[in-house]
Amino acid sequence: MSDGGVAGRGPDRYPVEWEADVVLRDGTTTHVRPIRPEDADALQRFHVGQSERSTYLRFFAPMERLSERDLERFTRVDHVDRVALVAVRPRDDVDGGAPDPAAEERADDVGEDIIGVARFDRTGTSEAEVAFNIADSAQGRGLGSVLLEHVAAAARERGVRRFTAEVLPQNGKMLAVFREAGYDVRQQMDDGFVQVSVDLDPTERSRAVMADREHRAEARSMQGLLGATSVVLVGPGVPPGEGQDHAGAPLDHVLAHRALVALVRSQGVTVHVVGGRADVPDGGTSLHEHATLADVPGPVDLAVVALPPPDAIEAVRQLARLEVRGVVVLSAGFAETGPDGLALQRELLRVAHTAGLRVVGPASYGLLRTGEARERPALAATLAEDLPLPGVVGLFSQSAPMAVTLLATTARRGLGVSSFLSAGHRADVSGNDLMQYWQDDAATQVVCLYLESIGNPRKFSRIARRLASVKPVVVVTAGRSGQVVPPGHAVRSTRAPRRTLEEMLRQSGVIRAENTHHMIDIAQLLAHQSLPGGRRVGILASSASLAALVAEASSSAGLVVARSDFLPEDASPDELAATVDALYAPDACDVVVVVQVPVVHPRRADLSRAVARAAARTGRTTVASMLGLHGLTDELSAPASDAPDGSLLRVPAYSTPEDAVAALGAVVRYARWREADHGTPVRPAGVDAGRARALVEGALAGRDAVDLDPATTADLLACYGVRVWPARRVRTADEAVAAACEVGWPVALKSTAAGLRHRADLGGVRLDIADETELRSDVAQMREALAAVLPGAADQPFEVQAMADAGVACVVRSTEDQLFGPVVSFGLAGDAVDLLGDVAYGVPPLTDVDVAAMVRSVRAAPRLFGYMGTHVVATAALEDVLARVSVLADDLPEVRSLELYPVVVSEHEAAVLSARVTLADAQRADALRRALPG
Question: How crowded is residue 370: how many other Cβ atoms within 10 Å of its Cβ?
Fold first, then answer.
């Protein structure tokens, strides 16, 4: 390891943005941050606590203690040429290491132990030497991989593009960290050492490796919560002589009591109660009372806390001793109360994550998991008075009031739940974590999410797309934008159009429900019926008018009416049987809608039973709307023909025919999405991402934002294979003629005045200028016309550009949004298109199918495909430009905005005639490193 860095670089500020909480392979958490001078004591304790082998593998020699000079060099870094990150946990006074008298004499102990160190020292302009050291007690938990991700991200931010390292051949774990990270790695033996070189530019494999590790770690962390078999409840208890839930009782007392009532209904769970009386019936749990947390024997899997914020934070600090995996914070009073409460919430997260705990809440309604077997014991750490039936639906909610509504709705419908979690303020655990868990949970077959805000849409899209490919995901967002941002939720602001969220959800393959009622409508169908094989619908109604109504609703939902029958109220049993048999005949239809609203007779139970038996026999997806039936009922149930255990197939009943058809249409669309080819991520040839990165860093050069000049804009786009047609700026007719001779006749003459660029209708563009005489005349006429349209426009320079082949003018744009990250848009050029909002949006990374869909989804798209006898244009070339822009936007978060306008698409090519790029500093939410919110 070198002692210094490149000369000429002074100390930089402490990079607080590098601090992060992370989930490790075993599902626990830790805090990663830059090293500080006051870490000298902790670093010495870390070193002294290491085994002789670990010390030898790191320093290539025995080293009992670090010298004062070493401590000074290792802890005082400039965060530019010399960078070090440490992973920390709360101080453990009994760590098994040898005592360190020198450290004990220091007065600046910060109460943390270091469990891992990653550092690099710059050895060249874009190269640095890297080293890692992981505590013996923390090895095997994936900490080395996490630190590599974070130190690599810091290095890229400082302009380092390659790591080098000397590793002993016997240090297989360290070599594996480099090899398995997914980067381009080269190794060779040299003088008894393995020389390792790691290119830090992300690759498809490095992204996939990170996503897979993230999935396994976050799924395991949720398993630690929902699979808990021991719980400690920490609350103030209920004051003696008072009722448990009376209106005047302090809220935290009520929360603690409600949680205890639910906990004792768990099965096979040990419950420890701290700070209150356990005066509730003991159900299937082992119940123990304790005066303080210090009296609770460990280990304990889960904690439930109902205390005021300062007391809750102190309780969480004490939970580290019990090796708790997570804490459910029922109490409110945190970020929703203002800046002071937000500070308390951040302190709660810091204490919890440093101690290895995930946080559910604050203001959570709790969590639960249903089960009836020893291998899946039921857990109820919730405020719910009535627990849901066991089932296959995973349910996620944020705020507690919506959790109450959702659980009550599932109970009314008879819909079973596999597991449930309310995230409250979503300070830590979010819907993303639950989706990671539910992907691997065999008991969950349908996922339902009620989202009031989405903190990391790019990560949500990535996880949801993978989950939706194997299990249906039904989503309700609060409002059309999905960004209500209730008090207490920490969410980045967004300026992206509302349709951005719709496009992100469409790309992800999730089913977007209009409201919670619609979500449960869809869920009860998915939970009890197989996915339909097509969209041909058969209709059976109790009147001709009802049949017509259902047919119209079906067409509106994207279904194709294959047959429509009505069964009169006085139909005989034989007529009923024949009609049902015909409806379920082979190849008669793909899905069935049955509507029975009798006018004078009672509802016919024989029709319900006949439909249920036919659906069970054929497996044909069926929904019903029958007067007096709602949800999942015994009357609409029959033994499934393909179920050896005799389990029932249930036909869901809906309040109205429109509700039934709406749910069926959503499921049919999802089934078609599952069967469709979603393409492969676009990887255009001829991309030089490294050169593009250097251009961006050089252009910004410490500035907050900069508009690139045309030459630099063209250079940047050329790195991604996008050629901008050259244009020459001129002020006089003589200059215009000289420019035209240079670029080649015929030419276009364009105004550069803001508001008149691309505006031929206002005199800002003259096309097909064939010779010098015409050009001189146009310069004079255009200057005179522009002066009348826009004062000052005549004084602006003109542009002269070679004429492109005639075609359709399009616009391709990209913006970097604080919340969504890169958002790419496409539309045809023109005021009408902009005013009508005829624009398609995509959130990179995109697939080739996504790109093709963007081009074809705008309403003006027929103009690209021979509308009204015009030529079909080169849409493949247009899609190539759009794909390259999407990759550029995904690679470079500093590209705040990019506009290609116009892109003229002719029969043979897509010509980019003008481009503008603005750069700015950016901190993308879904960076190339794993990190928790907070």
Answer: 23
Residue 529 tokens, joined: 């019926």
**What is the per-residue pLDDT across 753-774, written as a single tens digit (0 to 9) for each?**
877 777 777 788 999 999 999 9
Q: Tokens in use for 824?
A: 């790419």
Closest-CA residue to 295 (of 268, 316, 322, 329)? 322
The pLDDT-based confidence of 917 (bands split at 50, 70, 90) is: very high
394 CB-near residues (< 8 Å, 6+ apart):
417, 418, 419, 420, 434, 438, 441, 444, 446, 447, 448
Is residue 118 predicted with pLDDT exceeding 60? Answer: yes
* Helices then strands, each counted (H, E), the chain: 26, 38
Q: Which helix (H) or strand (E) holds 741?
A: helix 733-743
Position 490 scores a pLDDT of: 64
Beta strand pairing call for 379-382 and 446-451: unpaired
The residue that leads in pLDDT, 689 or 887, is: 887
CB 217 within 8 A of CB 199: no
Cβ–Cβ < 8 Å for 816, 745: no
Token pair listed for 340: 């002071």
Block residue for tokens 């910060």? 110
> What HEC string does 62-89 produce?
CCCCCCHHHHHHHHCCCCCCEEEEEEEE
Burial of 32 (0-12, 13-18, 19+ CB in 10 A): buried
Residues 540 and 682 sit within 8 Å (Cβ to Cβ): no
pLDDT at 828 over 70: yes
How many CB atoms sit inside 10 A of residue 576's CB? Answer: 18
**Contact partners, residue 93, CB within 8 Å, separation at least 6:** none
Asked if 653 contacts 624 with a C-beta cutoff of 8 angstroms, the reply is yes
Q: Virtual CA dihedral for 49, 53, 57, 60, nearest 10 degrees?
A: 100
Q: Would you state the structure tokens that stand for residue 885, as one six-digit string?
A: 């822009």
**C-beta separation of 910 from 903 below 8 A:** yes
Residues 6+ away with beta carbon under 8 Å from 463: 215, 432, 435, 436
Sign of torsion, CA 595 597 601 602? Answer: positive
- 275 Cβ contact partners less than 8 Å away, ≥ 6 residues apart: 234, 235, 236, 237, 256, 291, 292
CA distance 547 to 561: 11
DSSP category for residue 602: P
Long-range CB pairs of 610-613 (<8 Å, 24+ gap) are 610/576, 610/577, 610/580, 611/540, 611/580, 611/636, 611/651, 612/636, 612/637, 612/638, 612/649, 612/650, 612/651, 613/638
Distance CA 679, CA 657 (A): 36
Kindly report the average pLDDT of the chain as a whole number: 91
Instruction: Give the residue among 526, 551, 529, 554 at the shortest CA–CA distance from 622.
Output: 529
Q: Confidence class of residue 5 from pLDDT cuts 50, 70 and 90?
A: very low
The Cα–Cα gap between 834 and 86 comes to 50
Q: What are phi and psi of 802, to 5 degrees?
A: -65, 150
Distance CA 804, CA 748 (A): 9
In 619-709, where does DSSP find H-type helix? Answer: 657-675, 689-700
